[in-house]
Specification:
This protein is of the alpha/beta class. It contains 14 helices and 21 strands. A seven-stranded mixed beta sheet has the order 4-3-2-10-14-11-19, with helices on both faces. The chain has a three-stranded antiparallel beta sheet with strand order 1-12-13, with no helix packed on it. It is globular, with a radius of gyration of 24 Å. Bound molecules: uridine 5'-triphosphate (UTP).
Length: about 475
């Protein structure tokens, strides 16, 4: 059992003694749990964090020599920016076939905007079938066995808050047909949630510190300490296809992207990204920029509006490359970062409502406004640590239908429409008639399993022959 007096004295030195206010009233097991939890926090780091992120707010300054990041256009024959798609696809395919590509989903977020009980990956997302997000992703790797004759090991980052429920979901669904030994789960780290008004660590209960997952950037450390990187090494994996849990249209095994990352001109094969052209200047997505030859993502709130509105001669936005949180990371790169004692991604501060208890009376507090500061690391901050990072353009309707909110923008409704729209395009290109309304939108609901196709060319190769009636719901 951690030493109570030692912890009491360390907490007193950093002004966080209230964490033990209810200690005497706890059972021995609860006491032990609380001490272990407190000991796992970086107690001595707290005053500096409070000063930097709670008592003041970090001021963002624009990086020097800021410009838009160059990118590989989706049309490989774009004048002046052509690239060899066929060669990149061959390279990507051969890497998948050789078992050198792993998939990695970050699924440790709290999903508070969606308001769904349970891990977000269990959310029913398929436009017709209602398949869970996890099942949709799994089907890519089931299909890879047939398409490429390859095993794609899949790593799933959870958080201590949703780990057990995530594993139970996979067990209940028999790993969606994947071999259990090719699916690995590991929890990311957590940070204590801090009270905005005082910088005190919030208590979730009398014997529990309020914590939040430490952001998707926490994956660098989590991949290492969990043994996932070592497992990748054992398997001969060299590249990690990174994606978020909320996007059912993601294509984790895209040969062209993998090829560009591994062997594209200017790529160091360390960390690469996909982008979509921003729809309008104010769109709330991070933007790929370049500063002194390094790629970085600048959050929409940090990029001055006059820059966001700048246009090129052809009328397109100058800062056009919106981030959709799809990356490939080199195993060697992640190892290098994780093993570097000086490596640390910066924290980002977010004000949130954090249910907690009053540290004096113990009464439950369900705040109506933001009472807490959460500190998170973002994975894209690792981009500027690459020697050569490339960005690849993709099409919004091909690969981006995130489910973030319960309703409205980026909700299940918008995601279903985008899934249908993409399937309609693929089917029409393959010669199937899709009924459309007068406004041009499909007059049906469509869903394509990744086992059937993960791009238009695979749909065409499947030679679909079906008749779709108006108002029909069709899953292929
Ligand atoms: P979001 O930024 O959408 O955050 O995460 P969230 O926590 O899921 O949702 P809200 O903001 O509470 O509504 C983007 C992706 O990063 C993962 C999420 O699971 C999602 O795939 N993520 C986020 C983590 O894995 N860990 C984190 O600490 C934060």
């Amino acid at each position: 059992m951690p030493n109570l007096e030692a912890i009491r004295s360390r907490l007193a030195k950093v002004g966080q003694s209230h964490l033990l206010n209810f200690f005497a009233a706890l059972t021995p097991v609860q006491q032990q749990d609380l001490l272990v939890q407190i000991e796992s926090l970086d107690i001595e780091q707290l005053p500096a964090l409070v000063d930097t992120y709670v008592k003041s707010k970090p001021v963002f300054s624009l990086p020097p020599e800021l410009g838009p990041a160059p990118y590989f256009p989706k049309n490989e024959k774009s004048p002046g920016r052509s690239w060899d798609r066929a060669a990149m696809e061959r390279t990507g395919e051969s890497l998948i076939k050789a078992g050198k590509v792993a998939a990695f989903v970050v699924a440790g977020g709290q999903g508070s905007r969606l308001g769904f009980e349970g891990p977000k990956g269990c959310y029913s997302a398929g436009a017709v079938t209602g398949k869970s997000l996890f099942q949709i992703f799994a089907e890519h790797f089931v299909a890879a066995k047939v398409r490429y004759g390859a095993t794609v090991p899949w790593y799933i980052m959870t958080s201590p808050l949703n780990h057990a429920a995530t594993v139970a979901f996979f067990e209940e669904h028999k790993f969606f047909g994947l071999s259990q030994r090719d699916v690995q789960f590991f929890p990311q780290g957590v940070m204590p949630s801090l009270e905005i008004a005082t910088g005190r660590v919030l208590l979730a209960g009398k014997g529990e510190v309020a914590t939040n997952p430490d952001g998707h950037g926490g994956c660098v450390k989590a991949l290492s300490v969990s043994g996932a990187l070592a497992d990748m090494r054992r398997r001969g994996v060299e590249h990690i296809s990174y994606f978020q849990v909320d996007n059912p249209l993601v294509r984790p095994l895209d040969p062209a992207f993998i090829g560009l990352h591994a062997a594209g001109p200017g790529s160091s094969a360390e960390m690469s990204s996909k982008m979509i052209p921003k729809a309008y200047p104010e769109e709330k997505v991070g933007v790929f920029c370049s500063s002194q030859g390094k790629v970085e993502v600048i959050e929409y709130s940090d990029l001055p509006m006059d820059l966001q509105k700048q246009r090129l001669e052809d009328g397109s936005l100058r800062f056009i490359a919106g981030s959709i949180a799809i990356h490939i990371m080199g195993v060697e790169f992640v190892e290098r970062l994780a093993n570097d004692p000086k490596f640390a991604l910066p924290y980002h501060r977010a004000e949130k409502k954090v249910p907690c208890i009053d540290p004096i009376s113990g009464a439950a507090i369900n705040p109506s406004g933001n009472n807490g500061v959460k500190l998170e690391k973002f994975v894209f901050d690792a981009l500027s640590l690459c020697r050569g990072s490339i960005v690849f353009e993709t099409d919004r309707t091909e690969e981006f239908a995130p489910i973030k909110n319960a309703a409205g923008l980026d909700s299940i409704d918008t995601s279903r429409s985008l899934q249908t729209e993409r399937a309609a395009r693929w089917l029409e290109a393959a010669g199937v008639a899709v009924p459309r309304k007068t406004d041009g939108s499909p007059d049906c609901v469509l869903e394509v399993s990744p086992v059937t196709a993960t791009c238009a060319a695979e749909m065409a190769a499947a030679k679909p022959t079906l008749k779709i009636d108006r108002g029909a719901k069709v899953a292929l």
